[in-house]
Amino acid sequence: MTALVTFGETMLRLSPPRGERLETARELEVQAGGAESNVAVAATRLGGDAAWFSKLPDSPLGRRIVGELRSHGVDTDGVVWTDDARQGVYYLEHGASPRPTNVVYDRADAAVTTLETGETDLDAVRDAEVCYTSGITPALSETLRETTADVLDAAQDAGTTTAFDLNYRTKLWSPEEAAEGYRALLGSVDLLFAAERDAATVLGRDGDAESVARGLAEDYGIETVVVTRGEEGSLAVSGGAVSEQGVYEAETRDAIGTGDAFVGGYLAKHLDGGSVAESLQWASATASLKRTVDGDIAVVNPEDVERVVADEGDGISR
Amino acid sequence: MTALVTFGETMLRLSPPRGERLETARELEVQAGGAESNVAVAATRLGGDAAWFSKLPDSPLGRRIVGELRSHGVDTDGVVWTDDARQGVYYLEHGASPRPTNVVYDRADAAVTTLETGETDLDAVRDAEVCYTSGITPALSETLRETTADVLDAAQDAGTTTAFDLNYRTKLWSPEEAAEGYRALLGSVDLLFAAERDAATVLGRDGDAESVARGLAEDYGIETVVVTRGEEGSLAVSGGAVSEQGVYEAETRDAIGTGDAFVGGYLAKHLDGGSVAESLQWASATASLKRTVDGDIAVVNPEDVERVVADEGDGISR
Amino acid sequence: MTALVTFGETMLRLSPPRGERLETARELEVQAGGAESNVAVAATRLGGDAAWFSKLPDSPLGRRIVGELRSHGVDTDGVVWTDDARQGVYYLEHGASPRPTNVVYDRADAAVTTLETGETDLDAVRDAEVCYTSGITPALSETLRETTADVLDAAQDAGTTTAFDLNYRTKLWSPEEAAEGYRALLGSVDLLFAAERDAATVLGRDGDAESVARGLAEDYGIETVVVTRGEEGSLAVSGGAVSEQGVYEAETRDAIGTGDAFVGGYLAKHLDGGSVAESLQWASATASLKRTVDGDIAVVNPEDVERVVADEGDGISR
Amino acid sequence: MTALVTFGETMLRLSPPRGERLETARELEVQAGGAESNVAVAATRLGGDAAWFSKLPDSPLGRRIVGELRSHGVDTDGVVWTDDARQGVYYLEHGASPRPTNVVYDRADAAVTTLETGETDLDAVRDAEVCYTSGITPALSETLRETTADVLDAAQDAGTTTAFDLNYRTKLWSPEEAAEGYRALLGSVDLLFAAERDAATVLGRDGDAESVARGLAEDYGIETVVVTRGEEGSLAVSGGAVSEQGVYEAETRDAIGTGDAFVGGYLAKHLDGGSVAESLQWASATASLKRTVDGDIAVVNPEDVERVVADEGDGISR
Amino acid sequence: MTALVTFGETMLRLSPPRGERLETARELEVQAGGAESNVAVAATRLGGDAAWFSKLPDSPLGRRIVGELRSHGVDTDGVVWTDDARQGVYYLEHGASPRPTNVVYDRADAAVTTLETGETDLDAVRDAEVCYTSGITPALSETLRETTADVLDAAQDAGTTTAFDLNYRTKLWSPEEAAEGYRALLGSVDLLFAAERDAATVLGRDGDAESVARGLAEDYGIETVVVTRGEEGSLAVSGGAVSEQGVYEAETRDAIGTGDAFVGGYLAKHLDGGSVAESLQWASATASLKRTVDGDIAVVNPEDVERVVADEGDGISR
Amino acid sequence: MTALVTFGETMLRLSPPRGERLETARELEVQAGGAESNVAVAATRLGGDAAWFSKLPDSPLGRRIVGELRSHGVDTDGVVWTDDARQGVYYLEHGASPRPTNVVYDRADAAVTTLETGETDLDAVRDAEVCYTSGITPALSETLRETTADVLDAAQDAGTTTAFDLNYRTKLWSPEEAAEGYRALLGSVDLLFAAERDAATVLGRDGDAESVARGLAEDYGIETVVVTRGEEGSLAVSGGAVSEQGVYEAETRDAIGTGDAFVGGYLAKHLDGGSVAESLQWASATASLKRTVDGDIAVVNPEDVERVVADEGDGISR
Ligand SMILES: [Ca+2]
Ligand SMILES: [Ca+2]
Ligand SMILES: [Ca+2]
Ligand SMILES: [Ca+2]
Ligand SMILES: [Ca+2]
Ligand SMILES: [Ca+2]
Ligand SMILES: [Ca+2]
Ligand SMILES: [Ca+2]
Ligand SMILES: [Ca+2]
Ligand SMILES: [Ca+2]
Ligand SMILES: [Ca+2]
Ligand SMILES: [Ca+2]
Ligand code: NI
Ligand code: NI
Ligand code: NI
Ligand code: NI
Ligand code: NI
Ligand code: NI
Ligand code: NI
Ligand code: NI
Ligand code: NI
Ligand code: NI
Ligand code: NI
Ligand code: NI
Ligand code: NI
Ligand code: NI
Ligand code: NI
Ligand code: NI
Ligand code: NI
Ligand code: NI
């Protein structure tokens, strides 16, 4: 039994060295990357005791994913293995202004798209304190849309807090499709993370962050809604009360995974009994630290987060 | 117009450093690899003026393939670009006895599987002296099976010599499926390359190399049949006459692509007016050199081949 | 026949990793780098169909150059091969303020310095729409000075637009030598690119950019003069009309080749029928993108340039 | 609860690229290496469900060790963390005949040398089927000598099979010291692995392998004694019965860890209910596979071992 | 005989690539790093003819240190070799705000901590113009505290200028211990370098830089006191006269070793007959250049420093 | 004053990773390589106290050479620096049978070719016990031919033992030119190293090794002649007495520099008072060890050589 259970797709992330383009690359760095496993890793590293499940090919590539997640302490016992489907991949080309960072997805027909409810360990979900997935999961297949609904439902019924990040991806579905997908799930969500831009683009919620959060909380009966606003910081409405949090500025090496680190930091503090305001602060500090590290994953420790929160500066420690 | 036109699938080849396994890899080396483009590269490098066509995603990954082939001088103007399909990939783990070299294919639904005859430039094929593909191509999709038949047919009708390598792949189809696939094509083939093992496994031809070659030549009306026997060398039956060729021993760095280098060396010499015996000798020398170089591709020059054929030794040249 | 023909020297560029100095280097990255081939690559990548010719040693080093240029689609059939001269090299040490980027040339007696007019394919030049070289070429040898004059002359006589970038290099000749060299050629130039600083240092033209451009246009009868002013942007005078263009700001990885990317972008748009103003805009966008990529070469695509011109931002595309 | 518990020191292994010497190295590859964790990893990867415990500094270096072991599925919950001691390191220079592979130990005062019995989780040991350590552990400190005795004792008392490998290291203690150390422990051992050379050098047992095994079994009341003889294979005496096993020849990349892989393969098969003969066969196959992989660790899967045992050849699998 | 003799500890510096954390590292870059050898290297490279002595293990690791220092021209003949102690190491993780650069020391019981006065070549010290060490040396062991006092004493008695940098390290001793250590030595110092922060933290000197310098000069009878103030520049009081120097701004790659480069630049100019003001200027320029280069060591040449001092800009030199 | 003085050309050696060809290389490894500095390094590392002089460009490339040689302890104070000539380079492509290792020289007009006698420090040569150069030096330029003669002459006149290796290079001069060059020098040689093949090809000496050695000794009045015969071992005739030495077999990583290591090992033992037979044995052992290390340079220590001579085996030392 773990305190946090997350599920979703984790891909191989393949990226050429900074300053090189994919179409001339000779070497690619390999990492595991996926929104929900990113959250599980961050939360586990920060003390949160997390599991992640998914469906993976029983191949060196699938084992490559599980090995990396386990190295950070994430429990992967719930992974479903198959001989009949492929491993999703994404190619990441680091940008530099005005050239954007470019992601080439090669995730169609990944094993996870065939994950059915009956294959999952719902008891682990029911025993957890928090169950998390993101809006990427239902976007991947019709099957996953059903599985996502079933899992969140089972969790909420069992008293597990359900957490969800909209995580809208334009390369996966249209705003209209996403809106429909989200609406089918939001009734089962207790803790929602929503980027201001996603709320506007997909759900048509355009006001200030607080009114967006209040609106979502009310319309879908969500206990806590956290709205993130990029460099403007974040805001939570929980049981009617508002908490605000600024960003910690970072020298950015790799922005991928920032949002997942934010959620992971939030959940770690939340599981540790932190208040909404304290959890937001950990979320923000973890997100900032993530940006200093290559890869999807927030390779951080509790001391790192505490140091940022305490604002102890960033000179050389010796 | 080029002297040789080849077509088929070319994949990204991703491989960890020697001594590392895929499931713990952090870095992958990238190359373009595909039987028919390997042949085109070897033939072009050895003076043969070749083109290769296929269907590729209009993405950095597809452009990555074309860039590498062009760097060796191969004409890629006939490539069909699409926004609707993916780039095939194969993962290569270098083995060391008793651990076999392992190939993990991720080529399902690659763009090339949708290549229809109508998309190809049959005039380029008709204008060429030789048109080459291998048994991998019809194994990839029903569409490709038809396209392969159409192209070989059009070539032969126009007086272009059609060349074909059985290239049986157990991970693509069963021996029975392959047998059916081959039989539908062999009537359109003028020059056949057949590994002794493929001829046995798929076509049930079990005698000595010469009788296998004679049998295939007669049964399918093939002008020249080259049977390769691994370390035993190779043998050709052409117009009834037999030529034999031993292997040149090599210190093997990377065995992938050896067979394609053999065909490429053969065709280069053939296009240059070489006899069957001379072409076999170039084939064998090119195959041997390929084994000393990392990657699918035979990065060789005519002087390299001439030196091997002349048996000038392999000390340090300074 | 290609729309654009460029000629000049292309060197091996050898550079240690960023943060390391040449005198302690253990590894050097290898690239092909040369002003005129940089222009050919940028123009070809952006749709311009270009060739480049030069004289190279018939060695692995010479073939290394040609292989890289061909990978980007540049036609190198006009290259003259020799067994009697060396490959030019330049060593590049990336700087960081206050340490300047340092270039160590080792290009004396490179094969290209012996390229005579009689060895070149003047018909390819006469058939092209544009023929380009830069002020580096006549600086390399007396022979090249004559060849440059002959080629530009032949081009202009045949109605091919002749394009030229002053490209003054202090390590190659003095301002006085350069002035004499330029003056011998400018009468044969239809489209001139001149850095404001070169125009001042070498040609003693000190006024504002517009008056410099008008002065050069009038004094040498040049149809279009483009003056580049670093971060101040660029300005063209063409048929008396003035066009101005700002720079697109870039996060610079590698500034080498910025000017060549500018010319390549200009020519690509020009060959596509763009106006002077549109060509300047593509020039500026291509130059900006170049700075984000390691190496001399602008590894860019038309969509990249269009995106910069449309100012679509530089976040993560996923 | 895990089926196998191992304990001992795991060091950072730092090694320059093959062909480079330590004293000119600029880059070192990092791995976790330790006899007992090597055994745990091999056994876990082969299905054996293992834990490893030790004492590590609560630092990035200590966490580096645990992360790598966890990635292979080893349970590290029993690790004792300290702020007061250092991480052991060993530097490995790959040899090539006649230059030996050289190991430079820097393990004095490592955290593990202070591990006391009271800090360990003896219940986990008592609940396991097998408890393993090697002769390196008692060689590291007086404290560890006592802890080793206590743990083996507690295990044996609880009915857990105690397994031990002599693993004599000349750089840690003299043959006389080792003999004394071993004798204090062998009475608590149920399953002994002894290299023929160690038995001779340290314990003065010089006869043929069978008589060495029988002698050790009788003198110390050990149920099963496995004697390994390098290229000569191995031999076990168990309950009086003898089993023999040859080596599987390997193309060796890295011989470090071969003995540990042997033990890991043996224990995995043993835990799975295999006979002594079957366990020896798995031991030998795992050892052979280890030699093909860089690093201390046998990155192997059950299918790999089965393939070697079935002698299916080592060509390319595609 | 060399003009400058320095002594102290030099460690192996092991650091993962920028953006990677120690606890997930697979590769570490290796360098020699130590305050006093950093000073010797900088001074030698800038023309100052320096020696460095210490005590090192007679192993590949100790030889690795000496080899790197010698490559820069430092005389290492005074090094004492031992078979009985280890090589100190430090692990360096590059930070990015808000994540600090982190140093993990593994230097306890390094060979140098056993260096006794009787093992050193005091004649070399007496013959030198300047003898330098830093506050790190006496912090390392009781033995070294005595040796440091003896050497500085012998130097001063012989008329050699003694130079000392406080170099307070929180991971080595407390402010109180350091204060006691410094006070035992300052009476033997002729030229003191003190970071403003160290003077405040350890010696309780809190006023402006000038008063700190004057106070230290008077209280300990030090001829010249240089106070460094980070980005605020530096100030020297020498014989009552004050000199001030600003910093040269740098694009920082690696801040480690900045202070040592400052001292090295100062001493090089001083040995060349420069005034205090000129020496400060070289100090500042050398420090600035150091920051642009990876590693502890200022890989700089006199021309680099002269260029910075002359403020010649930092474009591309070609 | 050093015991051994060597002089000649040292180049930058640039080589792609094993298995890659020069014409597709993206990265080159950098080393210093030159016959006479290779000898100086080997001799110094083995205790022989050596200097090397030459003429180098005062550039990062020239300093790169000197830095590497100094790192091994070679005295480079005699190097002559110039602003007017280039650094020689050689490109090395590792072969694998049947593809030979290929060397591409780019050494024409290197600074060393202008080294005149008047620029050298003849006193250092006269003070040395041994002065060494090889047949490459006079092959490089007319100037060097004279300088070589002058230096050997001055050495011999002063009682310094002059040592010389024929080192015939087909890419530098014809056998006839070499024969003339050698004959002009051999009268000044006291200790000659001659590969059997060079003696035959250039000097037309075809008999068995002993008669070749005796013939050369007599015809040119050479005290000691060492004839090397590749895998057949070596033979010396000194004062009429014959010594023979077999080769120590090696697992070859890099054969370049084997002959220089042989000479370096010989001279180190000779300077240490060894007999001809002992010196031959060290020569052979050093040559064998060199082959196990990447690069031109024998990174060896006296213990390594002693171990080979004592034939202590090549297992793992731990
Ligand atoms: Ca790069
Ligand atoms: Ca990285
Ligand atoms: Ca590699
Ligand atoms: Ca590796
Ligand atoms: Ca790498
Ligand atoms: Ca580096
Ligand atoms: Ca490398
Ligand atoms: Ca290397
Ligand atoms: Ca590296
Ligand atoms: Ca990396
Ligand atoms: Ca490679
Ligand atoms: Ca690299
Ligand atoms: Ni990256
Ligand atoms: Ni790289
Ligand atoms: Ni890397
Ligand atoms: Ni590979
Ligand atoms: Ni690598
Ligand atoms: Ni670079
Ligand atoms: Ni590197
Ligand atoms: Ni790189
Ligand atoms: Ni290794
Ligand atoms: Ni390397
Ligand atoms: Ni490397
Ligand atoms: Ni590596
Ligand atoms: Ni670094
Ligand atoms: Ni690497
Ligand atoms: Ni590196
Ligand atoms: Ni190499
Ligand atoms: Ni590499
Ligand atoms: Ni690389």
From TrEMBL, chains A, B, C, D, E, F:
EC number, UniProt record? 2.7.1.178
Domain (Carbohydrate kinase PfkB) ranges: 1-298
One Pfam match: PfkB
Which major enzyme category is it?
transferase
Q: GO molecular function: any one?
A: ATP binding
Spell out the SUPFAM superfamilies in the cross-references.
Answer: Ribokinase-like (SSF53613)
Please indicate if the UniProt record lists Cell division as a keyword.
no
Give the top-rank taxon of the lineage listed in the UniProt record for this protein: Archaea
Q: Which UniProt keywords apply?
A: ATP-binding, Kinase, Nucleotide-binding, Transferase
InterPro entries xrefs? KDG_KDGal_kin_Halo, PfkB_Carbo_kinase, PfkB_dom, Ribo/fructo_kinase, Ribokinase-like
**Family affiliation:** Belongs to the carbohydrate kinase PfkB family.
Protein name stated in the entry: 2-keto-3-deoxygluconate kinase / 2-keto-3-deoxygalactonate kinase
